[in-house]
């Protein structure tokens, strides 16, 4: 069986490790490949390669780095069908969704193409008489990225295009569940003209991650994944003196106000809750209905829509399904156990996605769309991130109760409100303790030129992904104060210098 190795110094290399992990096709349950779990010494060797490459890459002009990004963007677009197929085969999401993921990743490359502008820094003429001050935004050195399974291309592309454009070199540690596609992306970077050693991939698990977190040659670590691991990454990387941005899990609520357009809310919720089988950190998993009338009306519509959903394999279909399988058997079992716990905790199961079989794909990891009503704080299905196609309806009496509920949750990644009243929407944007907020938008994922990141236990570290925060994260600022005096300066100054 094919073993996916590493991508070091511009080429695929066979790993020396004796450990590996299976890679599955979630739609069939078939094991298709193995992926190496790299050793400590392989990871250290990759860091050494990236460190050497930094010497020359950091001196390439921003304009020339940007031109490589332009070529990379074009190659990603030319290869989008192949890349999408690769995502679907290991992640399970449907092809159009995989293409959507790629497009959102390509948008970060587009942003990175503007790096000569983004690195301009600040300049002040005459901060004192004959004295100028300006900033230099310089690369850090070797940076590392550790990514989750749910966006095998988009999340790495929140990280490395900006890091590389800023003049850093990079080591990517992808999820071991769907590692094939990012190896192909590395080849496209090379084809675009990226010098060898600037972008490297180490496949592996905690053993490799711990090297990236502790090796003094790595200067910054970007992480996206579950909250317990994000906390660990942030604490360990920071302890070793690195810059860390660690994005964690989520529980995203949507407030449905009594004045909201119910058809609009229903179609927004269907995609936001069940798209990608709920395996999105910005999925809406809780609908907070203000008033019983709002909940009853919405639930009737949702049940109708759910009954018409197509669930099936993400590729090889005649008519594209709305939703594919979950990524692994372990994850599907975890989602099923959440459904059981919801029933035990007293929530009302309206649509049951257990025992869900897809014809000719009986071994696939499918869980059907599931709908709970009368969910309350304290229940596991409310408190914890399920990361599956399970939508919970919580009923509250007022807008204030809805805001209090959301603000009391430990996660604060994304949220949204559906209303036709500008005043409630405006208050919501100001009062809500969540990092990414939508108004009549169900999944408010910021564009590449803005920054992505939550609040509370959804993020650790001060700087978010991409946009200006991304550029700040991958550069260190130096401020130069300069003057060009004529003749010898003979006056000694022992007091604190001041300008005037
Ligand atoms: P995960 O935390 O299990 O894995 C993420 C990465 O960490 C993988 O590369 C994995 O190999 C590595 N890892 C796992 N255990 C480790 C350990 N003990 N030590 C060091 N590294 C370890 O997450 P996942 O299941 O792949 O992804 C789903 C999670 O990611 C969900 O919680 C989801 O909300 C979150 N996520 C968050 C965002 C966001 O922007 N906030 C985006 C996407 C996904």
Please, could you describe this protein's structure?
- This protein has 2 domains: 2-248 and 458-480, 3-Layer(aba) Sandwich (Aldehyde Dehydrogenase, Chain A, domain 1), CATH 3.40.605.10; 252-439, 3-Layer(aba) Sandwich (Aldehyde Dehydrogenase, Chain A, domain 2), CATH 3.40.309.10.
- Helices cover 38% and strands 22% of the residues.
- The protein has 16 helices and 23 strands.
- The protein has helices spanning 40-57, 62-78, 80-91, 95-112, 115-118, 154-165, 180-191, 206-214, 227-239, 262-274, 292-307, 329-344, 380-383, 399-408, 422-431, 467-473; strands spanning 3-4, 6-8, 11-13, 20-25, 30-36, 123-128, 131-139, 142-146, 169-173, 199-201, 218-224, 243-247, 252-256, 284-290, 348-351, 370-373, 390-396, 411-412, 414-418, 436-439, 455-456, 459-460, 475-483.
- The strands form 6 sheets. The chain has a 7-stranded mixed beta sheet with strand order 15-16-17-14-13-19-20, with helices on both faces.
- A hairpin with a 4-residue loop joins strand 4 (20-25) and strand 5.
- Bound molecules: nicotinamide-adenine-dinucleotide (NAD).
- Nicotinamide-adenine-dinucleotide binds at residues 146-151, 155, 173, 175-176, 205-206, 209, 224-226, 229, 247-250, 281, 385, 387, 413, 454, 458.
- It comes from Colwellia demingiae.
What name is given to the CATH topology of the largest domain?
Answer: Aldehyde Dehydrogenase, Chain A, domain 1
Number of helices: 16
* Quaternary organization: single chain
Q: Over the alpha carbons, how many angstroms does the gyration radius reach?
A: 25 Å
Enumerate the strands of the largest sheet in spatial order, edge to edge or round the barrel. 15-16-17-14-13-19-20
* Main sheet properties: 7 strands, mixed
End-to-end span in angstroms? 73 Å
User: Strand pairing plus helix content: what structural class?
Assistant: alpha/beta
Attached small molecules: nicotinamide-adenine-dinucleotide
Name the CATH architecture of the largest domain.
3-Layer(aba) Sandwich
The domain tally reads 2
Overall helicity: 25-40%
Keywords: NAD, Oxidoreductase
Organism: Colwellia demingiae
Protein name: methylmalonate-semialdehyde dehydrogenase (CoA acylating)
Domain Aldehyde dehydrogenase: 15-480
């Amino acid at each position: 069986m094919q073993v996916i190795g590493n991508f070091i110094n511009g080429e695929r290399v066979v790993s020396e490790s004796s450990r590996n992990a299976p890679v599955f096709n979630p739609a069939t349950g078939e094991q298709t490949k193995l992926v190496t779990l790299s050793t400590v010494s392989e990871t250290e060797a990759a860091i050494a390669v990236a460190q050497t490459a930094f010497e020359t890459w950091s001196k390439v002009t921003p304009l020339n780095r940007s031109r490589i990004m332009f070529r990379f963007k074009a190659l990603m677009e030319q290869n989008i069908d192949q890349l999408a197929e690769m995502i679907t085969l290991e992640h399970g999401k449907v092809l159009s969704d995989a293409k959507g993921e790629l497009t959102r990743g390509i948008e970060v490359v587009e942003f990175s193409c503007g790096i000569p502008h983004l690195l301009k820094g600040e300049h002040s003429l005459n901060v004192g008489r004959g004295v100028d001050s300006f900033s230099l935004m310089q690369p850090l050195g070797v940076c590392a990225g550790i990514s989750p399974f749910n966006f095998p291309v988009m999340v790495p592309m929140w990280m490395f295009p900006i890091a590389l454009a800023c003049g850093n070199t990079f080591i990517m540690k992808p999820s071991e569940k769907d590692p094939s596609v990012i190896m192909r992306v590395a080849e496209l970077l090379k084809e675009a003209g990226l010098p060898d050693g600037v972008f490297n991939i180490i496949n592996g698990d905690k053993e490799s991650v711990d090297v990236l977190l502790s090796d003094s040659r790595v200067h910054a670590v970007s992480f996206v994944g579950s909250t317990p691991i994000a906390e660990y990454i942030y604490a360990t990387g920071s302890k070793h003196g690195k810059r860390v941005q660690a994005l964690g899990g989520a529980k995203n609520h949507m407030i449905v106000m009594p004045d909201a357009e119910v058809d609009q809310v229903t179609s927004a919720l269907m995609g936001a809750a069940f798209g990608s089988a709920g395996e999105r950190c910005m999925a809406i998993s809780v609908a907070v209905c203000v008033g019983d009338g709002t909940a009853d009306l919405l639930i009737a519509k949702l049940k109708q829509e759910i009954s018409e959903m197509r669930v099936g394999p993400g590729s090889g279909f005649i008519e594209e399904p709305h939703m594919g399988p979950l990524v692994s058997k372990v994850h599907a079992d975890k989602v099923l156990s959440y459904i059981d716990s919801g029933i035990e905790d007293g929530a009302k199961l309206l649509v049951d996605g257990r025992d869900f079989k897809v014809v000719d794909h009986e071994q696939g990891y499918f869980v059907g769309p599931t709908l709970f009503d009368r969910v309350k704080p304290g229940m596991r299905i409310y408190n914890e991130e399920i990361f599956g196609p399970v939508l919970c309806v919580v009923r509250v009496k007022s807008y204030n109760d809805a805001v209090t509920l959301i603000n009391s949750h430990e996660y604060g990644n994304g949220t949204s409100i559906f209303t036709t009243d500008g005043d409630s929407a405006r208050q919501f944007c100001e009062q809500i303790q969540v990092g990414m907020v939508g108004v009549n938008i169900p999944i408010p994922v910021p564009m590449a030129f803005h920054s992505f990141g939550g609040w509370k236990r959804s993020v650790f570290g001060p700087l978010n992904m991409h946009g200006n925060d991304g550029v700040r994260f991958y550069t260190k600022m130096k401020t130069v104060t300069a003057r060009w005096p004529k003749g010898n300066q003979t006056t000694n100054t022992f007091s604190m210098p001041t300008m005037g």
